[in-house]
Every structure is written in structure tokens, then in C-alpha cells.
Amino acid sequence: MKKQNVRTLSLIVCEFTYLLIGAAVFDALESEKEEEEKQTHMLKRQGYIEKYNISTADYEDFSLTIIKLVPHTAGVQWKFAGSFYFAVTVITTIGYGHTAPLTIAGKLFCMCYALIGIPLSLVMFQSIGERLNVFTAYGLKHIKKCVGFRNTEVSHTNLVVVGAFNVTVITVAGAFAFVKFEGWEFINSLYYIFITLTTIGFGDYVALQEHNSLQERPEYVAFCLMYILVGLTVVGASLNLLVLRLLTLNTEDERREQQAQREAELERARQFTEFHGNSIEAHHIDITDISTQYHNPHPGPYPDFKSAISSVCPCSCLGRRKNCTYSKAGAPKYPGNSLPLQPINDIYNGFSDEHSTFLQYQALNRKRASI
Q1: Rg of the chain on CA atoms, in Å
Q2: Would you place residue 223 in the very low, low, confident or very high pLDDT band (cuts 50, 70, 90)?
Q3: Distances (CA, A) of 108 to 30, 88, 89, 105, 122
């Protein structure tokens, strides 16, 4: 089995194994908490129904109304600032889910907008990430020169380390910023940034959703949008390095396998050539006196047996007679066969006589089969 196929199969097995491990860990960590939350909210629900003497249907309608009002606490969602924020979450595939189109026209436009915007944003982030990696390599090279390193070449590992450092800096700095602006705990801010920059976008934590921020805090809106775009660029640049490394491994394996295949084909061709060359030399016979070894009681106008056998050549046996030119006077000799060339039709004419000896005909067939 090819090495690439083994790697692909191993990756599939590892992926499903990783999914099983993740499912088991989340089950152990979250299932008990989920039951506790459910029991707590059910008790609160029953308490509200009894306290305010309302029906279950009225309570459900009241709860749904509160849920739908949550996005509006950030201000008007579909003015320009809110629409721009939504467009960013669409083309970057973050998709918080904090707001969504309600009209049919809005839903259709969202689908068409995403079909064009998502590939465009992917190409843009990849291009910017590549330029960022080139700039990083250029800077590292000059830093090494200034420090006095003998080897100033920038390796792939150097770029990966710098990329990881950049991701760490932008993540930690953003976490502190959202602690200040949103009032979240540090771990929740770090969690929000990770979910955002990896484009997972659960939507349980969303910035700009409190205190009418979309209309009253334009500087914070600009900061959030720029942070998301710059953060995705830095993360994309780092991921490009990792993906490039994996692609390089696959390319190297393909090149090695192709080289090994070419070498094997050349070896088989060499062995084939040596085998047939040795076979011709091993079966080469001297025909100097072959005409005197057999009695020919019926001389005729056809050529003698010596001339008939001498017409057998490699090109007639290997199916290349159309590319050869024969003459009765003889022709240049082929490598591996010292017999002069003669038209094969003369042989057939000479041995078509019913009085030809069987031994002569059988000897000719043996000579043909040996070449």
C-alpha cells in the first residue's frame, strides 16, 4: 500500500477516534450540569406560573417574547453598523446566530451574498497571510544578521514559532480588552476570542450586545470589527504554515514514490534488454557449412539453404520489417546478429516446392524461434 494511502487511512482513524474521545469527555463534564440547570429552570418556571397565576401557554409566549427581545438590547440590529457586523459574521463563517434575516428577500440575499463572500474572504485572508509570512521571514532574517547569527536563513520552524507567538499575543491582548469593554471574566473573554477566531461561533458570548452599543459606542464597534479581521488574518497565516507543511510532506512522498517507480521501470527495461541480448548471443550459430550438413536431392531455381537461413534477422522476428530495407546483395548487419539480410519472400518461394527436404525446413524454423 502506498505511503499516502496509509497516511490518509491513519488520519481518518485518528479523526473518528478523536471524535469519540471528545464525545466521552463532554458527556462526563457537561451532562450532570445540564440536568441541574434543567431542574433549576423547571422549578423557576413552575414558581412563576403559581406566583402570577398564569397558564402554561401564557408563560411560554412570555418566555419566547423575552428571548426575541434579547438582540434588541444592543440597539437596532439592521441599521448600517449592525448590518456591517452581521455581514462580517457571514463572510467569515463565524455565524454567531445572535440575529438573522426575517424577510424572504433577506434570506435569499443572504444565501447569494455568502456564496460570493465566503470564497472571496478565504482568498483574501490566505493572500494576506502569505504576505505576512513573507514579511515575517524578511524581518527574522535581518534580526539574525543584527544579532550575529552565522546562519541567517529562516526555516519553516522559525515561521511556525513566530506565528504561534503572534496568535498568543493577539488572543491574550483581546481577552483583556473584552474584559474591560464587556465586563466578562477573563476565561469567558478568552473563550469568546477562541470561538470567534476559529470561526466556530457558538453565539453564547457575542460582543456589542449590551447597552445599545451599536448606536452609542461607534469606537467600540470599529474596534470589534478590526479585531476580528486582523485576528482572522493572523490565525489564517499560522494555519497556512501548518497546512503548507502537511502539503509539503505529501508532495515529498509523491515525488519519492514516482522516483522509485521510474527506477523500477528502468531496472526492468535493463534486465529485459540484457536477457534478450544474452539469448540471441547464446543461440547464435555458425552457418558456414550448414548447406553441406543436409542432403538436397532436388536442386532447383530457388536459393540454397545457406541463403535462406541468412535472411533471418531480428527485425523480421520483432515485427519491424516495414521499417527495414532489404537487398539481395546483402545489407548492413544488426547488433547481436551477424547474418546478412535478404528478402524473406525468396525463402518462401524457395521452400514452396513440394520436393523440399523436411530437415531444411525444420532447421529454418528453429533458427527463427531462437532469435
Answers
A1: 42
A2: very high
A3: 37, 17, 17, 5, 22
